[in-house]
Design brief:
Distance between the termini: 78 Å
Low-confidence stretches: none
Number of strands: 0
Mean pLDDT: 88
Order of helices and strands: HHHHHHHHH
Number of domains: 2
Helix content: over 70%
């Protein structure tokens, strides 16, 4: 009998991530991951207790990927950075975006709470948002995320005209951010 191949936890997560990226999260099974690795199922069970444990690890990888995309944006404008990262994620990983955002799942609640805190902290560094209370910043973020979510859903599902590109999306997001900030300032007076 030939020796069993050994795979690191990261290699197994990457194989499951590739399945999710092309087929969706619901397609991750221990057997499919084993096939992706060219292995039996045994090495997967050495690293993960069950498929749910593996899916949690893949979700964690997706969260890290989305956070990395946000950190790579350095426009100096919090809304623009958030929007650019979101549009990039929806364009590059439409299946993951749909699974992560458009389908109910137990993982999104934790992500939303962590990411909300991170986004508000990011927004507080934006000079355009000086003078707003934490409550106002949370509401601004909620309104912008609602708009941005709709736009990125349209991107992920290819519902926009062919001439639509990321630059046009950023332009629309910038315009919406300006509208939300102007309205919020007017209500403060």
């Amino acid at each position: 009998m030939p020796p069993k191949k050994k795979f690191s936890e990261e290699q197994i997560i990457e194989a499951a991530f590739e399945i999710a990226k092309t087929e969706g999260m619901e397609s991750i099974t221990i057997r499919k991951v084993a096939e992706q690795l060219g292995s039996s199922i045994a090495p997967i069970y050495v690293n993960f207790t069950d498929v749910e444990d593996l899916i949690k690890a893949v979700m964690k990888k997706i969260v890290q990927l989305s956070q990395q995309m946000l950190q790579e944006q350095n426009s100096g404008n919090a809304f623009k950075d958030i929007g650019m990262a979101s549009l990039q994620f929806a364009e590059e990983y439409p299946n993951l975006f749909r699974d992560f955002v458009m389908k109910p799942n137990e993982y999104l609640g934790d992500y939303d709470q962590d990411m909300g805190t991170e986004l508000v902290a990011h927004m507080k560094t934006d000079p355009d948002l000086e003078g707003f209370t934490d409550e106002e910043i949370h509401m601004i973020l909620f309104k912008m995320r609602a708009f941005q979510m709709g736009l990125t859903i349209m991107v992920a599902n290819q519902l926009l005209p062919k001439e639509f590109n990321r630059e046009k999306g950023i332009e629309i997001l910038d315009s919406m951010a300006e509208d939300v900030l102007t309205a919020t300032r007017l209500r403060k007076k």
